[in-house]
Specification:
The chain has seven helices and twelve strands. It is an alpha+beta fold. The radius of gyration is 18 Å and the shape is globular.
Amino acid sequence: MDFTIEEMSLNAWPSLKTVLYDGWVLRFSNGYTNRANSVNPIYPGKINLEEKLRYCEEIYSRYDQTPIFKIVGISNDKPCNEQEAINEKLINLNYVLYDETSIRICDNLEQSNACMEGIIVKSDFYDNWKNSVIVHNKIQERHWPTFKAMLDKIPVEKIVVSKEVDGQIIGCGFGAIENGYVGVFDMIVKEEFRGKSYGRQIIQAILSEAFKKGIRKSYLQVVIKNSPAIKLYDKMGYREVYRYWYRKKA
């Protein structure tokens, strides 16, 4: 399997601390988000699997965190070949599955006539955008410093978009540009404003700005259970290319 998108998503959502271990990327961010606090087996290694799993459990316990492993495949019963043994071993060790997620791409972006009313586009994060994401996503107060620090660590070019209604930010999202793709991240619309196509407007603004920069491909991630978002992405031309899921110690 081509892990290009996995590599780009690691850059687009960096962890505060990273350990590289025999083809695996171990990420630590004070427990905020699974992506930034999980073991990502990217490339096959040489160390015995049981020894590697034991090492991961030990190092996460040092940070007082439950070890979480990210597995990539077609579906949760069909991991890719190099991760099948990891998945099976974790099942035997009572690691439970959760948050199966669809990776989708749109590989033929076109210039769109996006509705720009109330849309603000910037090249970097700013306080009002960060605080709006915190409020609309209901991020716990203890995670606020971590969330902001992670945004500050993003090394790639960004497209930061917000949607305003009556002078208040009611929706946010950002694009991360790398390797000819724009990844769409942190899409959120305030609860009482959902179902009004504002989410679509935010994505279209990100894609339109990326198109101006010569980008013709996009990727995003959506949890399988989020059927409204999946319907939207289907309409926008995003197709599933693979899935990933997490396994966490029961």
